[in-house]
Amino acid sequence: MDLILNLSQTGTAQNPPFCYESLNGSCHRIVYPLQIRLSLYIFFGAMVILTVFGNLLVIITIFHFKQLHTSTNYLILSLAIADFLMGVFVMPPSMLRSVETCWYLGNFFCKIHSSVDVMLCTASILNLSFISIDRYYAVCHPLQYRSRITPLATGIMIAVCWSVSAVIGLGMIFLELNILGIEEFYYNNIVCEGGCILFQTSASSTVSSVLSFYIPGIIMLGIYLKIFLVAQRQAQAIQNTTNQSKTSNKQPSLSKTEKKATKTLAIIMGVFLSFWTPFFICNVIDPMIGYLIPPVLFDMLVWVGYLNSTCNPIVYAFFYSWFRNAFRVILLGKVFQPDSSRMKLFSE
């Protein structure tokens, strides 16, 4: 991507500026007008603040209130931690890189930033995958839910999610699997001082996208389609047997709380897929067409993906009454009162 950026800049300016004027091999730099730079800093900065504080509020809420200590909410907590870390460690350096069009934080931190970026994106979709499994048992097999989705099972799912994500993120970058087979070309033609990109071969981009996004996404869509069909059948069965529902061997119907959780988490999954699908489509296509996708478009699609981490707390606030109630409790300082952790945020 830096190579494309350099070629496009040299075609539009006779003496393009460099990230490091005194260093040989420095990347070229795009200098945006001051008004555009300020506007971008304000927009990206607002995203960072909303992402960090919104997800921090979700984390505090689920940690503090004992009524929320359920398997589903522990998976939501894991997702919120991934989004929070995205806002703290990934988005601020990405903001600096996007606005200044250079990377001034060193090569080693560039590798850490890229690996954490991949890790957290993978953790988000794996968390959503496990949440869909949780919802599948809650809706389709409610009698087996408590025996299958135990605290131990939830802990294992969260551990698998973060360990697999760490292996993919750290392994790809630090073992240089993303440039396997083209190392000489990469270091001779792509790398320059002041650049920080995740350059991938066609095989690397395809395999990583399929493993980290497409397969989990298709599985989630299949599970939620199954949940939707089962919920529809349950609703129809309840409607048809309103006056004769005394059989004891019938599966229990969903409570309002379970229905609300399933609907909300399906929306969160849909938001995630909507925001990240354009990037992953381009990520697979770009190496196949000779890296012709403009770097500015790629950068924009990355920020569209980051926007998902900003939107999740907004979805919670819109659909979950417990989140809105917890927000009021925290703002009013009632969270510091004795036994506030046992406060009822919703009627079960």
From TrEMBL:
InterPro entries: GPCR_Rhodpsn, GPCR_Rhodpsn_7TM, TAAR, TAAR1, TAAR_fam. It comes from the Eukaryota. The keyword Disulfide bond applies. One of its GO terms (cellular component) is plasma membrane. Its main location: membrane. The chain crosses the membrane at residues 38-62, 74-92, 112-131, 152-175, 211-231, 264-281, 301-323. The keyword Disulfide bond applies. This is Trace amine-associated receptor 1. GO terms for molecular function: trace-amine receptor activity. It comes from Chanos chanos. It is a multi-pass membrane protein. Keywords: Cell membrane, Disulfide bond, Endoplasmic reticulum, G-protein coupled receptor, Glycoprotein, Membrane, Receptor, Transducer, Transmembrane, Transmembrane helix.
